């Protein structure tokens, strides 16, 4: 496998120098102590990622204050006991994007967050306890127990929540094809994701860089 120093050099060829690459690739969302992040903020981040999927992110950003009000601050314990009258109210609420499937997903994810918090103390504590060398396992759990958290949505949720996550974006996948980690420019199968995880584990051990930073350097190495 290509030494990660050479991949940093490839990125530096496109973006000036190694120092610039390492600065550009830092993950500003990374949280040192995820267990301190309130569950309502993690559900809010989860909801934003679910709604961002397939929508213009600027539309969601512009309406976000309305989302906070409509979903009553994203308190998981409160929302997890939703009734159909709440669902009916939300699909008619002009303060949010009125997509019934994604609204229902938010209410189902509130139950997922609340149930996980009861078992682990908080949802943040659960995330903090999950090892970074098994992101594929965490993504599988999010897909299985959460709602509409499969694929890239789960990856973006982990990144924006502050977990040390890689993202298989188009540029990252292109770099992984170049490095012969992937056979094609997507990582949608369990086998492909296993190969991605193996490569990231290798480069993390070699370089000492966070997984999220390795992901961003790979993207920068494409151009």
Strand content: under 5%
Radius of gyration: 19 Å
User: Count of helices?
Assistant: 14
Binned, the helix content reads 55-70%
Mean pLDDT, nearest integer? Answer: 96
Q: What's the β-strand tally?
A: 0
Point out poorly predicted stretches: none
Q: What structural keywords apply?
A:
223 residues; 14 helices; 0% strand; mainly alpha
Secondary-structure map:
Blueprint (H helix, E strand, L loop, with lengths): L3 H12 L2 H7 L14 H14 L4 H6 L1 H7 L5 H4 L4 H8 L8 H21 L2 H7 L5 H11 L5 H11 L8 H9 L11 H18 L3 H10 L3
Helix pairs in contact: 1-2, 1-14, 3-8, 3-11, 8-9, 12-14
Q: Describe it for me?
A:
The chain has 223 residues and is mainly alpha-helical. The model has no long low-confidence stretch (mean pLDDT 96). 65% of the residues lie in helices and 0% in strands. It has helices spanning 4-15, 18-24, 39-52, 57-62, 64-70, 76-79, 84-91, 100-120, 123-129, 135-145, 151-161, 170-178, 190-207, 211-220. It is elongated and about 55 Å long.
Brief description of this entry?
This protein is 65% helix and 0% strand. With 223 residues, it is mostly helical.
């Amino acid at each position: 496998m290509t030494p990660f120093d050479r991949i940093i050099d490839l990125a530096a060829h496109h973006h000036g120098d190694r120092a610039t690459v390492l600065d550009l690739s830092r993950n500003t969302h990374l949280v040192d102590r995820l267990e301190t992040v309130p569950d309502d903020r993690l559900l809010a981040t989860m909801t934003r990622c679910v709604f961002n999927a397939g929508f213009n992110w600027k539309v969601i950003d512009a309406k976000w204050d309305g989302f906070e009000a409509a979903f009553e601050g994203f308190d998981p314990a409160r929302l997890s006991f939703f009734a159909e009258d709440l669902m009916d109210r939300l699909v008619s609420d002009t303060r949010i994007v009125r997509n019934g499937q994604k609204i229902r997903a938010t209410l189902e994810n509130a139950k997922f967050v609340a149930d996980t918090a009861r078992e682990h103390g908080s949802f943040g504590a659960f995330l903090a306890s999950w090892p970074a060398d098994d992101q594929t396992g965490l993504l599988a759990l999010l897909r299985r127990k959460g709602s509409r958290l499969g694929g890239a949505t789960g990856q973006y949720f982990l990144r924006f929540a502050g977990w040390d996550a890689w993202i298989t974006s188009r540029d990252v996948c292109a770099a992984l094809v170049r490095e012969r980690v992937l056979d094609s420019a997507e990582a949608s199968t369990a086998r492909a994701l296993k190969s991605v995880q193996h490569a990231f584990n290798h480069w993390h051990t070699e370089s000492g860089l966070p997984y999220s930073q390795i992901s961003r350097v790979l993207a920068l190495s494409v151009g």
